[in-house]
Amino acid sequence: MLKHVVELHVIVEVRQETKSQTIIDVTNFPENEDIVLMERMLNSTNYAKLKPYLDGTASANFAVYGRKGVSGNFKTGKAIYRHIKAIGAEVLHLEALLVRSLFLLPTVLSFKKIYLTIHDPLPHVGEEDFKISLARFIYFHMPKLKGFFFYSDFAKKQFQQHYKKIDKPCWVIKMYPLSYYKKLEVNRNIDKQSLLFFGRISAYKGVEVLLNSMSNVFEKFPLTHLVIAGRSINDYKIPEEVLNRFPDQITVINRHISNDELVRLIGEAKFVICPYIEATQSGVLMTSFALNTPVLASAVGSFEEYIVDNENGCLVAPNDSRLLAEKTINLLENDFYKNLTTNLKKHQQVNSWDLNQPILVNAYHEN
User: Fold this and answer.
1) Which residue has the higher pLDDT, 351 or 270?
2) How far is CA 326 from the centre of its chain?
3) CATH topology for 179-347?
4) Any idea where the domains of the chain sit in the sequence?
5) Which pLDDT band holds residue 103 (cuts at 50, 70, 90)?
């Protein structure tokens, strides 16, 4: 792990208005504090689950945004600057660029080496935001920026094709199952009857494609139940025509899903469906894999890098409800999906994320 070969300080940015929408379900926000030890903001149960990942780090804190609008964000940005200056860190690795990254500019400019992880080189359909574009323009042109990391070869190639004038090194660090969710898993004997779509609901996720495929699926397997779980964003509205036709066979949970609820939903699912019209990489995929649940996904983005068709999941051409229905039925026939579940259990690697350590360390030293 990276924490064993460098002095690693971790800062996780959270916003009060989305306090329960992180992987670790933050619930306790001390008043008038901007940098707070993680163990003070998590209840004892959640902290105990996270502690193995934090043991060995030099420090682990939350940076709290969301108090008093822009002025509060500037205040948090200043607090981060003071905190990092006191640490004396030499390398800054930003795991994502968001709008609030603009408030970190004083901190960023104080470093000799800056690295960025880019999740989505291009905005997804329906998720364009000029403020994020502005943040990217500023950060991408910083002289102290030493390079970029990506979670897939697809994302790296997409970035290099779009940002041809950005002449900086690029590295790929592979994604692996998100082992944190294993700590939430409860052993139970469940007669799995559902198919599951989960995650934020947006235009590029292909929900219409999924819904339009279900009439054929329900005709063949009338006891099957589809669950769509996640919060709509950017004013996206789920089409209601199919929902109204199958009110007893489709359940929509349109809100934030807590970790415990998510683990339960995945545990009740035969497999997860990702009918995306476009994608880069997918936390949904790695969460499902962590819980040994196969994924049927569109052959877009990096899904083809992580899914071996008919081994740990299945791939289908995007934006085609007929093909999606056929593939879904194939997985359900004779419980074929159980073969994929067995393969996932057989090939799960422990601490696979450690394989990325030399890539990170070499990048930090070489530039």
Assistant:
1) 270
2) 28
3) Rossmann fold (3.40.50)
4) 2-176+352-366, 179-347
5) confident
